[in-house]
Design a protein that fits this description.
By secondary structure, the chain is an alpha/beta fold. It has two domains: 95 residues, Elongation Factor Tu (Ef-tu), domain 3 (Beta Barrel), CATH 2.40.30; 131 residues, Rossmann fold (3-Layer(aba) Sandwich). It is globular. The mean pLDDT is 91.
Length: 252
Protein backbone atom coordinates (compact mmCIF):
# COMPACT_ATOMS: atom_id res chain seq x y z
CA UNK A 1 0.00 0.00 0.00
CA UNK A 2 1.33 3.42 -0.99
CA UNK A 3 1.38 5.99 1.82
CA UNK A 4 1.02 9.60 0.66
CA UNK A 5 2.39 12.52 2.66
CA UNK A 6 -0.09 15.34 3.28
CA UNK A 7 0.61 18.44 1.15
CA UNK A 8 2.29 21.40 2.83
CA UNK A 9 2.90 25.03 1.86
CA UNK A 10 6.47 25.78 0.75
CA UNK A 11 8.50 28.78 -0.33
CA UNK A 12 11.14 28.26 -3.02
CA UNK A 13 13.63 30.54 -4.76
CA UNK A 14 14.41 30.51 -8.48
CA UNK A 15 18.07 29.50 -8.90
CA UNK A 16 18.33 28.27 -12.49
CA UNK A 17 16.46 28.38 -15.79
CA UNK A 18 17.28 26.36 -18.91
CA UNK A 19 15.58 27.36 -22.16
CA UNK A 20 15.82 24.15 -24.20
CA UNK A 21 14.13 25.67 -27.23
CA UNK A 22 11.38 28.13 -28.10
CA UNK A 23 8.76 25.94 -26.48
CA UNK A 24 10.20 24.18 -23.42
CA UNK A 25 11.97 25.66 -20.39
CA UNK A 26 13.13 24.02 -17.17
CA UNK A 27 12.96 25.97 -13.92
CA UNK A 28 14.90 25.00 -10.80
CA UNK A 29 13.84 26.21 -7.37
CA UNK A 30 15.64 25.83 -4.03
CA UNK A 31 13.51 25.38 -0.92
CA UNK A 32 13.86 28.27 1.55
CA UNK A 33 12.39 28.76 5.00
CA UNK A 34 10.37 26.10 6.82
CA UNK A 35 9.68 23.35 6.02
CA UNK A 36 13.14 23.10 4.46
CA UNK A 37 12.74 19.63 2.97
CA UNK A 38 10.38 18.77 0.11
CA UNK A 39 9.73 15.01 0.06
CA UNK A 40 7.64 13.59 -2.77
CA UNK A 41 7.04 10.44 -4.78
CA UNK A 42 8.12 10.27 -8.41
CA UNK A 43 5.14 11.31 -10.54
CA UNK A 44 3.62 13.79 -8.10
CA UNK A 45 3.05 17.48 -8.80
CA UNK A 46 2.91 20.86 -7.07
CA UNK A 47 0.37 23.68 -7.16
CA UNK A 48 1.92 27.15 -7.53
CA UNK A 49 0.25 30.45 -6.69
CA UNK A 50 0.62 32.45 -9.91
CA UNK A 51 -1.22 35.68 -9.13
CA UNK A 52 -1.98 38.05 -6.27
CA UNK A 53 -5.61 36.98 -6.62
CA UNK A 54 -4.61 33.51 -5.46
CA UNK A 55 -4.93 31.75 -8.82
CA UNK A 56 -2.96 28.51 -9.00
CA UNK A 57 -1.48 26.24 -11.65
CA UNK A 58 -0.20 22.67 -11.32
CA UNK A 59 3.09 21.28 -12.65
CA UNK A 60 4.68 17.84 -12.42
CA UNK A 61 8.04 17.57 -10.67
CA UNK A 62 10.73 16.29 -13.05
CA UNK A 63 13.64 16.02 -10.61
CA UNK A 64 14.75 12.94 -8.70
CA UNK A 65 12.86 12.16 -5.47
CA UNK A 66 16.29 11.77 -3.89
CA UNK A 67 16.65 15.56 -4.09
CA UNK A 68 14.65 17.12 -1.23
CA UNK A 69 16.23 20.59 -1.05
CA UNK A 70 15.07 21.65 -4.53
CA UNK A 71 12.68 20.82 -7.36
CA UNK A 72 12.73 21.10 -11.14
CA UNK A 73 9.72 21.88 -13.29
CA UNK A 74 9.46 21.48 -17.06
CA UNK A 75 7.18 24.09 -18.60
CA UNK A 76 5.62 24.27 -22.05
CA UNK A 77 5.71 28.05 -22.51
CA UNK A 78 3.89 28.08 -25.86
CA UNK A 79 0.33 28.48 -24.51
CA UNK A 80 1.36 31.70 -22.68
CA UNK A 81 -1.27 31.22 -20.01
CA UNK A 82 -1.25 32.92 -16.63
CA UNK A 83 1.04 30.30 -15.10
CA UNK A 84 3.58 30.47 -17.90
CA UNK A 85 3.66 34.27 -17.86
CA UNK A 86 4.16 34.27 -14.09
CA UNK A 87 7.09 31.84 -14.22
CA UNK A 88 8.72 33.63 -17.16
CA UNK A 89 8.51 36.94 -15.29
CA UNK A 90 10.58 35.62 -12.38
CA UNK A 91 14.15 36.81 -11.88
CA UNK A 92 16.85 34.77 -10.20
CA UNK A 93 16.33 35.05 -6.46
CA UNK A 94 12.56 35.62 -6.71
CA UNK A 95 10.41 33.27 -4.66
CA UNK A 96 7.26 31.29 -5.30
CA UNK A 97 4.65 29.84 -2.97
CA UNK A 98 3.61 26.29 -3.73
CA UNK A 99 1.63 23.46 -2.19
CA UNK A 100 2.79 19.87 -2.42
CA UNK A 101 3.27 17.07 -2.93
CA UNK A 102 0.00 16.35 -4.73
CA UNK A 103 -1.40 13.54 -6.85
CA UNK A 104 -1.48 9.76 -6.91
CA UNK A 105 0.12 9.18 -10.30
CA UNK A 106 3.03 7.24 -8.83
CA UNK A 107 4.85 3.98 -9.38
CA UNK A 108 3.37 0.85 -7.90
CA UNK A 109 5.01 -0.21 -4.62
CA UNK A 110 8.01 -2.51 -4.69
CA UNK A 111 6.90 -6.14 -4.57
CA UNK A 112 8.27 -9.56 -5.39
CA UNK A 113 7.19 -8.72 -8.97
CA UNK A 114 9.67 -5.86 -9.22
CA UNK A 115 10.85 -7.14 -12.61
CA UNK A 116 7.44 -6.60 -14.24
CA UNK A 117 7.87 -4.53 -17.45
CA UNK A 118 6.80 -0.91 -17.46
CA UNK A 119 5.94 1.32 -20.42
CA UNK A 120 5.81 5.12 -20.26
CA UNK A 121 3.84 6.94 -22.97
CA UNK A 122 4.14 10.72 -23.14
CA UNK A 123 3.57 13.64 -25.47
CA UNK A 124 5.14 17.06 -25.10
CA UNK A 125 5.83 18.18 -21.54
CA UNK A 126 3.99 15.07 -20.34
CA UNK A 127 7.45 13.49 -20.18
CA UNK A 128 8.21 15.49 -16.99
CA UNK A 129 6.95 13.01 -14.36
CA UNK A 130 8.56 10.13 -16.26
CA UNK A 131 12.02 11.66 -15.89
CA UNK A 132 11.46 11.63 -12.14
CA UNK A 133 10.20 8.04 -12.34
CA UNK A 134 13.28 6.99 -14.33
CA UNK A 135 15.50 8.37 -11.58
CA UNK A 136 13.45 6.37 -9.08
CA UNK A 137 13.43 3.11 -11.04
CA UNK A 138 16.96 3.11 -12.43
CA UNK A 139 19.10 5.02 -9.98
CA UNK A 140 17.31 4.46 -6.68
CA UNK A 141 15.34 1.21 -6.73
CA UNK A 142 17.65 -0.70 -9.05
CA UNK A 143 20.73 0.24 -7.04
CA UNK A 144 19.02 -0.84 -3.83
CA UNK A 145 17.87 -4.15 -5.27
CA UNK A 146 21.37 -4.87 -6.56
CA UNK A 147 22.77 -4.33 -3.10
CA UNK A 148 20.17 -6.52 -1.42
CA UNK A 149 19.46 -9.29 -3.97
CA UNK A 150 22.13 -11.20 -5.86
CA UNK A 151 19.50 -12.73 -8.17
CA UNK A 152 17.98 -9.37 -9.11
CA UNK A 153 16.56 -9.21 -12.65
CA UNK A 154 16.00 -5.58 -13.72
CA UNK A 155 12.58 -4.81 -15.13
CA UNK A 156 12.36 -3.74 -18.76
CA UNK A 157 11.46 -0.04 -19.02
CA UNK A 158 10.39 1.70 -22.25
CA UNK A 159 9.67 5.37 -22.83
CA UNK A 160 7.64 6.35 -25.91
CA UNK A 161 7.77 10.13 -26.26
CA UNK A 162 5.83 11.94 -28.96
CA UNK A 163 6.82 15.36 -30.31
CA UNK A 164 6.15 17.27 -33.52
CA UNK A 165 9.63 18.40 -34.59
CA UNK A 166 13.18 17.27 -33.81
CA UNK A 167 14.05 20.78 -32.60
CA UNK A 168 11.41 20.39 -29.88
CA UNK A 169 13.32 17.50 -28.28
CA UNK A 170 15.48 17.89 -25.17
CA UNK A 171 16.92 15.67 -22.41
CA UNK A 172 18.46 13.54 -25.16
CA UNK A 173 21.81 13.38 -23.37
CA UNK A 174 20.10 12.29 -20.16
CA UNK A 175 18.18 9.58 -22.00
CA UNK A 176 21.38 8.43 -23.72
CA UNK A 177 23.11 8.22 -20.34
CA UNK A 178 20.23 6.14 -18.97
CA UNK A 179 20.50 3.74 -21.93
CA UNK A 180 24.28 3.45 -21.64
CA UNK A 181 24.21 2.82 -17.88
CA UNK A 182 21.06 0.69 -17.71
CA UNK A 183 20.61 -1.90 -20.45
CA UNK A 184 16.99 -2.50 -19.39
CA UNK A 185 15.95 1.04 -20.43
CA UNK A 186 14.69 1.67 -23.97
CA UNK A 187 13.97 5.12 -25.38
CA UNK A 188 11.71 5.67 -28.39
CA UNK A 189 11.30 9.32 -29.48
CA UNK A 190 8.48 9.68 -32.01
CA UNK A 191 8.09 12.66 -34.35
CA UNK A 192 4.81 13.44 -36.06
CA UNK A 193 6.46 15.96 -38.43
CA UNK A 194 10.00 14.67 -38.96
CA UNK A 195 12.53 15.74 -41.55
CA UNK A 196 13.60 13.27 -44.22
CA UNK A 197 16.79 12.35 -42.34
CA UNK A 198 14.90 11.30 -39.18
CA UNK A 199 15.63 7.58 -38.82
CA UNK A 200 13.55 6.75 -35.73
CA UNK A 201 9.80 6.38 -35.20
CA UNK A 202 7.51 8.57 -37.29
CA UNK A 203 3.87 9.54 -36.91
CA UNK A 204 1.62 10.09 -33.95
CA UNK A 205 2.13 8.12 -30.77
CA UNK A 206 -1.26 6.50 -31.29
CA UNK A 207 -0.30 5.28 -34.76
CA UNK A 208 2.96 3.81 -33.47
CA UNK A 209 1.14 1.97 -30.68
CA UNK A 210 -1.50 0.69 -33.10
CA UNK A 211 1.26 -0.85 -35.22
CA UNK A 212 3.22 -2.28 -32.29
CA UNK A 213 3.00 -5.55 -30.40
CA UNK A 214 2.23 -4.70 -26.78
CA UNK A 215 3.40 -6.61 -23.72
CA UNK A 216 0.26 -7.86 -21.99
CA UNK A 217 2.10 -8.19 -18.66
CA UNK A 218 3.42 -4.61 -18.49
CA UNK A 219 2.15 -1.63 -16.55
CA UNK A 220 1.41 1.38 -18.78
CA UNK A 221 1.76 4.98 -17.56
CA UNK A 222 0.29 7.80 -19.67
CA UNK A 223 0.88 11.54 -19.46
CA UNK A 224 -0.11 14.22 -21.94
CA UNK A 225 -3.24 16.01 -23.07
CA UNK A 226 -6.64 14.63 -22.15
CA UNK A 227 -7.25 13.84 -25.82
CA UNK A 228 -4.03 11.80 -25.99
CA UNK A 229 -4.81 9.90 -22.79
CA UNK A 230 -8.30 8.95 -23.97
CA UNK A 231 -6.98 7.82 -27.37
CA UNK A 232 -4.11 5.78 -25.96
CA UNK A 233 -6.29 4.15 -23.31
CA UNK A 234 -8.69 3.06 -26.05
CA UNK A 235 -5.85 1.48 -28.01
CA UNK A 236 -4.44 -0.31 -24.97
CA UNK A 237 -7.83 -1.73 -23.96
CA UNK A 238 -8.54 -2.87 -27.53
CA UNK A 239 -5.17 -4.61 -27.50
CA UNK A 240 -6.19 -6.52 -24.35
CA UNK A 241 -4.26 -4.52 -21.76
CA UNK A 242 -6.18 -4.87 -18.49
CA UNK A 243 -7.59 -1.56 -17.17
CA UNK A 244 -5.80 -2.01 -13.83
CA UNK A 245 -2.49 -1.98 -15.72
CA UNK A 246 -3.17 1.48 -17.18
CA UNK A 247 -2.21 4.44 -14.99
CA UNK A 248 -2.71 8.15 -15.56
CA UNK A 249 -3.61 11.35 -13.80
CA UNK A 250 -4.92 14.58 -15.24
CA UNK A 251 -4.90 17.83 -13.29
CA UNK A 252 -5.89 20.08 -16.19
Amino acid sequence: MTVFLPPKPFIAQLTDKLEYNERYTQFRFEIVGEPNKFEFKAGQYVSIQVSERGERRSYSVSSSPDVTHALELLIDVAPQGIGTKFLESLNFGDTINFLGPLGRFVLTPETTEHNKPIVFIATGSGVAPFKSMLHELLQIRQARFKQEEQSFIPRQITLHWGMRYSQDLFWLEEMQDFMQNFSNFHFNPILSRPTEDWSLSRGRVTAVLEASSLDLTADYYLCGSQEMIVAVKDILVRKNIAPEQIHHESFY
